[in-house]
Amino acid sequence: MTPLPHHSPLAVHGLSVTYGDKPAVRAVDANFPRAALSAIIGPNGAGKSTFLKACLGIVAPLSGEVAFFGQPIAQARARVAYVPQRASVDWDFPTTVLDVVQMGQYRRAGLWGRLSGAARTQAMGCLERVGMAEFASRQIGQLSGGQQQRVFLARALAQEAELYLLDEPFAGVDAATEHAIMDVLRGLRAEGKSVIAVHHDLATVEDYFDHVFLINVDRIAEGPVKTTFTAQNLNAAYGGRLVASTPTTLIQAAE
Amino acid sequence: MTQFWAALTLQAGYNAALVAIGAALLGLAAGVAGSFVMLRKRSLVSDAVAHAALPGIVLAFMVMVALGGEGRSLLGLLLGAALSGGAGLLVMSWLTTRTRLAEDAAIGAVLGVFFGAGIVLLTVVQTMRAGRQAGLEDFLLGATAGMLREDAILIALGGAVVLALCWLLRRPMTLVAFDPGHAATLGYNTRAIDLAIMGLAMAVTIIGLKLVGLVLIVALLIIPPVAARFWTDRAGVMVWIAGGIGGAGAYLGAAISASAPDLPTGPVIVLVLAAGFALSMLLAPKRGIVSAAWRYLRLRRQFQQGA
Amino acid sequence: MGAEFVQFSLTPILIGTFAAMACALPGNFLILRRQALIGDAISHVVLPGIVVGFLVSGTIAAGPMGLGAAGAAIIAVVLIEAIRRFGRVEPGAAMGVVFTTMFAAGVLLLEQSGSAQVHLDVEHALMGNLEQLIWLRASGWQSLTDPAALSALPQELPTMALACALIAALILAFWRWLKIATFDEGFAQSLGIPTGALGFGLVISAALAAVAAFQAVGSILVIAMFICPPAAARLMTNSLAAQVWWSLLFAAASAILGYVLAGYGPLWLGAQNAVSAAGMIAVVSGVILALAAMFGPHRKGAQTV
């Protein structure tokens, strides 16, 4: 078997995951580009989140290989930041906004290492970048959905990673937050960092992303948005339920 | 062994036969009522209710003694149990709706605190009148030895009433347990039906206290439905399988317990039900472990060949 | 508050306080992880554990019985997880199946073995014997510096203090991991934190607290202390560290106030006999929780969007 490429921030070969005896992701190959914004797209239940989690080792894959920058996840953790779905955590947890952002520094600080004043300044800087600095001492339960999502993004920024994996970053957020998040992501790309996001809003794919990966349990297609985000591929991913000739009309049908 | 067959065929004496029939009806009712509780994912609420019954039992005893009675009427004690069990239920719902605490914390808090209060009262009774209080401790683990004929009849009747109510309310309870939102749009009063589900579970709990004891009674509500779930994906069918497992298990357990000394009825019934659960979990055709493992291995082979 | 207090009340109060705090510490995380009932399950399965420990070793020494109880707690946790995962049974029901079955087996073993005669009975297991853990050799406060008297301290005191210290040390050592894995398990895993092992360790430390506390204070107190002080503490603050401190304060207050009320309360009311200390401590913790639920500054959850 050929080794997975080093230049790709995330390369996957033959990845399969099952829940019980139902396949969630089947023998998927993928190869995401560096310094680009990539979207993972597919219908509900297509295995998008599962694919991300399996890459990160959060769910155990049945088979397959995953390489971050050519290395297994265990050796690449410092270079990868993950933003889980907002709904996956208990927002009633007794903690503050700044505290959540500083969780992104735990890996560097270790179990017992001191979080210095400099670390605090860095965390405040990350909050600044997502426009949440004034909320630093708020209890997290008092935030709106969009604000929660920005805090999650700030936590990922605090990790100072090279690859950012985001699971549905725009789900249930307001328009202002969506713009703020996109600004940050574009900024990351400008710094040469890579972003991969699970995305469900077909209408914004062409605006937001450079690279797209279509999945519906099986890998459907992968490539630059211009050539890959086509009616034919979308039809294949969405099970032929959408009958239309261009992405734009397809999107209307999907909604 | 002959003693066991005698008990199983109701030949081991009038009282043993009554206990076995009472246990069977109780088990049947518990399996059916417990199914709705399990579908509603509130199995352990009934554990808290059972433990919360203790202070009521002791208080009822004290009140009956204070009024000049003997204090051992099962009906009176169960009334006390129902009142304090109901109070426990109210406190749980108050904690979860009025504060940020989740249901599991509310269950545990009510269980521990009410039970603690019951133990405090029990020590009061013990010092109060040593002779007459005999029997209250039996409610902890259940006891059939000193059971009167009226007691057994009360248990059997109570089980039958719960069963009849479950049958009458089966449709709305299934709907609410499965999808409360949908049930509400159909015009059902989901709050009232929820209350009915918990009320029936509480009734089983209270009726069974004397037989199985308040620490273990919840097993009758939980184990049969969980076991039944392995055999079917249809709620309507599951309810009756659970009832069957509960009834048969309780009857068998009561018979085993009557066949030899030192076999306390409650724990034996629970262990028989647990055996039924273990068999179901292993061997059920679709959801059982053996068949699931086989399918998983087959899938895995396919994938590895494919990759 | 003289010699009599030191002799008859000091040690039970200290043991009760350490037991309450040892249970409350892991209880904080169990509550935040929606696993409060693991505490309930553990306290039930301790009984079969000590029965088996007794039957195997033939003595009622604390060592083998404690080992048996710890083993039972581990078996219970593994079984619950297996049933939940392989049987696709919801966690509450899976716990219910496991702890009732194990408790029933414990009672049956106890009855069958006739060990009920050797002061190992179910009631004892439920209620504990806190009142009997007195320091007979003490003659007053000065005994605290008298090596001969100190060597006659009830064995439960150093055991409980040690268990409490160990649990506190573990929670302190793994504080960051516990916090992050409790708040956001997926993120913790992406950092490489072994959340599975961490969760298991938390349950094991809860089991350790339950086992150590159990023989002295019984299982009611164990359940109440796992849940009531941390639950009340959650309603007092929005900071995890402050919550843990509050829970320790509430646990200690419950133990001290409960013991005093159980021992002296009936006398004040004109009765002659004390009531169950373990039961009263549980009741006091419940009163504290009720007060926190009515007046706690952070009793309401934030309305998440």
Task: Tag the structure with descriptive keywords.
heterotrimer, A: 255 residues, alpha/beta, Rossmann fold, six-stranded mixed sheet, three-stranded antiparallel sheet, 11 helices, 9 strands, globular, B: 307 residues, mainly alpha, ABC transporter involved in vitamin B12 uptake, BtuC, 14 helices
Radius of gyration of chain B: 21 Å
What is the terminal-to-terminal distance of chain B? 58 Å
Q: Let me know the largest β-sheet of chain A.
A: 6 strands, mixed
Number of domains of chain B: 1
Q: Poorly predicted ranges of chain A (pLDDT <50, ≥5 residues)?
A: none
**How many domain units of chain A?**
1
| Major sheet size, sense and barrel closure of chain B | none
End-to-end separation of chain A in angstroms reads: 42 Å
- Total helices of chain B: the number is 14
Mean pLDDT across all residues of chain A, rounded? 89
Would you count the extended β strands of chain A for me? 9
Strand order, main sheet of chain A: write it out.
5-6-7-3-8-9
How would you characterize the overall build of this protein?
The complex is a heterotrimer of chains A (255), B (307) and C (305). Chain A is of the alpha/beta class. Chain A has a single domain (10-254), classed as Rossmann fold (3-Layer(aba) Sandwich). In chain A, 35% of the residues lie in helices and 23% in strands. In chain A, helix 3 (97-103) runs parallel beside helix 6 and helix 5 packs across helix 6. The mean pLDDT of chain A is 89. Chain B has one domain (2-306): ABC transporter involved in vitamin B12 uptake, BtuC (Orthogonal Bundle), CATH 1.10.3470. In chain B, 79% of the residues lie in helices and 0% in strands. The mean pLDDT of chain B is 87. With 305 residues, chain C is an all-alpha fold. Chain C has twelve helices and no strands. The model of chain C has no long low-confidence stretch (mean pLDDT 87). The interface between A and C is medium-sized, with 38 and 29 residues.
Please outline what is shown here.
Chain C: It comes from Roseinatronobacter domitianus. Chain C: The chain crosses the membrane at residues 6-25, 37-56, 62-80, 92-110, 160-178, 190-214, 220-237, 244-262, 274-295. The complex is a heterotrimer of chains A (255), B (307) and C (305). By secondary structure, chain A is α/β, with parallel strands linked by helices.
